[in-house]
Amino acid sequence: MIARTRHYKGDRFFKGKEDIYVNRVTEAFTICEHMHDFIEVSYVAEGNGYHYIANRIIPVKSGNLFIIPVGTSHVFRPSSPNQSAKLIVYNCLFRYATFEKWKHLFFGGSDIDRVMHNQLNPGIPYLHVFDRHERLQPLITTMHKEFRQKDEGYETILLAILIQLLMIINRLGNEAESADANGRRGRQSDMLGDAVRFIQEHYAENITLKQLAAQAFMSESHFHRSFKRLTGLTFTQYLQKIRIEKCCGLLKTSDQCVNYIANRIGYKDMKFFYALFLKKTGMTPQQYRKYHQSAESSAYPV
């Protein structure tokens, strides 16, 4: 990400005797990448987009849930800078000390226990599950309602639902692990992940589908299908998405001229660049800069 990573303290959210904080956020490009000193459970409720987390980009849609431990950098982004593209996420925050009080409920070595201690997988310091049968969303929405209304005993209800939520998440993780045991994971998945990271790091270069397919030891047609299955986008769409996002960041954070920025992100044809930017954002680069440069990052940042 272009902007520096911000660090958030739990004292910003936990008031009085509260140990749990819940909200509902419409994600936006004005929210900065950040890490925090508390644990966060994020549930994608509506729309689709991407989760930038621990140097990875994960396509998300309704039903995706993440447990993000202390110190893991992340931010959600809608699928497009266009304001009509919505991504709505519920966030449940709680202190690590709160988990310590009832961690005995989760046997040592479980996914929940390991992710809380940032020991889940090397290089993947978070837990990601999919709510295939919509078992989690009713719990999250009930927590949000309880937190907002603050009726008598709401703290106890929040804690009870949080424990139930984590228990079901642990089950989902075990189900996914069992399903994958006989599946086709491993080297091909790693190769596709390498291709995604290559695009993120070399987006300004003249990258081709043929080049990435060769690096992944796949035919172009097989790579194309596998890449779209992983990201939800074709190779060209994904490359354009990354380039336009980088361009948006530069327009907001610098006074460099538009032509220079276009060249910097990999576009030499200005007519094509302007048409693509308008299609992706609904604005010209100049309009985008004028609209966003004066805006402050006042939205909820988690």
TrEMBL record:
Keyword DNA-binding in annotation: yes
Q: Which UniProt keywords apply?
A: DNA-binding, Transcription, Transcription regulation
Q: Where is the HTH araC/xylS-type domain?
A: 193-291
The source's domain of life comes to Bacteria
Sorted alphabetically, which SMART domains does this protein's record hold?
HTH_ARAC (SM00342)
| Coiled coil, from the record | none
PANTHER family linked: ARAC-FAMILY TRANSCRIPTIONAL REGULATOR, HTH-TYPE TRANSCRIPTIONAL ACTIVATOR RHAS
The protein's name is Helix-turn-helix domain-containing protein
Q: Which organism is it from?
A: Paenibacillus solisilvae
